[in-house]
Amino acid sequence: MVLVRARAEARADDIVDVVIELLETEGYDAVQVRTVARKARTSLATMYKLFGTRDELIVTALEKWLDAHAYSELSVPEPGDSSDSPYETMVRVLRTVF
Asked: Which residues, 6+ apart, have CB-to-CB distance to 68 below 8 Å?
């Protein structure tokens, strides 16, 4: 039973990785269930068993991507700290994120 669960989790990770790749390279519209299944080398039945819907699949992929790309080093300025203008603060945030 544990081995089956581990295989399902590994298969789900492979599928989510394909979705992340598609989102990063081709965008939201490219994430089609058949395309993902083909690239992940799995069946449509497995996809629907693991994720239920395309939306759940995309949400899972986004959660994984956000977990991997969290920016803990991004510091929030203290209230009343006027050392940076709003423009400078926004540039600092965007440089950190991107």
From this structure: none
